[in-house]
Amino acid sequence: MNLKLQELVTNKRQILLQIIKLISEEDRWYSIQEISVAIQLVERSVQRYVNDLYDVVNDCNEQKNDHFCLQMKKNKGIKLIIEQKENAAVLKKFIYESDETIQILMALLFESYHSTFDYSKKEDLGSHTILNSLNKIKTFLQPLNLTVSTRDFCIVGSEAQLRIISNSIAWYLFNSDTWPNIFHQVDQSKIDSAIITMSDSLHLDIPPIQKREFTYMVIINILRYRKGKSIDFLSEWEQYVPVDNQCELYRIIESMYKSFHIYSHSEVRFVLLNLMTKSFIYDVSYLKKEIMANLLKNSADVLTTTDLFMKEFDQFYPIPLKDYDDIYFYILRGHLVGKIYKQADFNFSGHSLKNDIPLEFATYYTRASRFINKLWSISHDDFFLEVDYLIELYFLVLSFTELTSLFEQTVTLSLESDLPEICEKHIEEFICNQFKHYFNVVFTKDKMLQRPDLILTNIALNTQKSTPSLVIDYPISDRTMLEIKEVLCNFNDRKKKRSNLIINIV
């Protein structure tokens, strides 16, 4: 969501966000020259933006009661001081909130105004500026098959799609706020009490953040309904949700909605449908059985796609029995989200790795695309045409099973030392274990057969070698591990660039 929203804000704010991202990575001084190279701007322009950022930090501290500090020194550059309770995300969100286009987007999502003229008059903003922002927002919403009515000053399209984008943006921008202003029409104590009653009645143990996230979803549903924007429960969703009054989930949600004077059958079922995408529901055994029994009874397509994935994935990499249920229900829930929300390449939390995967894991991206195409050729289910969404969904399974490094470019190491063989074996195993989540590291003994990328040695020889070498000590110190990691990062980046070049040429 961060990258998506970044496309909406002004060029100046985009540059400020880039600078914040850079200088928040490490607790150190960043020179103007270093920032200039990183964001590809001349130093004079960078200095100007740094001065603007200084004012933004002060405004954020004053308005949000935060405690950031941007230090500036002529010969050192700048340094961002972040207190323990804060993080750079708070500063980024403050920049988003202060942007005119983001403010217009929020007004559209929550229908706070009746027309463009109404917004222009009340917010004292020129119509030309508003129309420019609306055009940006149209482009932003297009992948979700949503558009903007400039006359009625509202978003037009599927209500389900509109709600997922509303929830994603509201959660991303305001998840650390005590009670966002956009929710002022809903009584906080009443909604909190209703959620607690629901979770107690269903014996749910909802983690605090997930409970807060679910609360946001319910509030947005209530606000949209009060605006006369009710959900049309699609016939294709019928297979997922049990018949009314035969399901305890339905009865409890219905009771919760009645406390807000909402008696819509579709709204209740829509909340139930979204609850089925949450992991905490499946932690309660009787609810899990109830949901699965209904899906089996209706021969739900989400079961067919999940079973097919598990079967084909298991042939590629046998799934450990202890992990089978966790992976199965993760895929089931992910497939269900994809069935409900078309072209939504992010979840209700607004998280997405889509832009990182093709660059960081080019080999995985290619193989996963083939795997998904195979699933489609077997099933002919158009769901498997949602390649970008599925590539990310399945990537997290690989992360869980610790397989992601298999799709990294191989970095070959060789160990040359005067240590006993058992010590050398220990070093190799230790290094491989330390970096197995980040690099595809292999050790070679036969340098004639396979030339290593790096030689590790405990003897510093003053001789020129055609292969780079790194002197290590034994036992291996933390400093040595950091040095090895830095070298591995450099090799990996170079290999990825060569791999991406080959892919692009082909």
TrEMBL record:
Residues annotated as domain Mga helix-turn-helix: 89-165
Any one Pfam family match given in the protein's UniProt record, by short name: Mga
UniProtKB keywords: Transcription, Transcription regulation
InterPro entries named in the record: BglG_antiterminators, Mga_HTH
Protein name per UniProt: Helix-turn-helix domain-containing protein
Species assigned in the record: Vagococcus allomyrinae
Organism lineage string: Bacteria, Bacillati, Bacillota, Bacilli, Lactobacillales
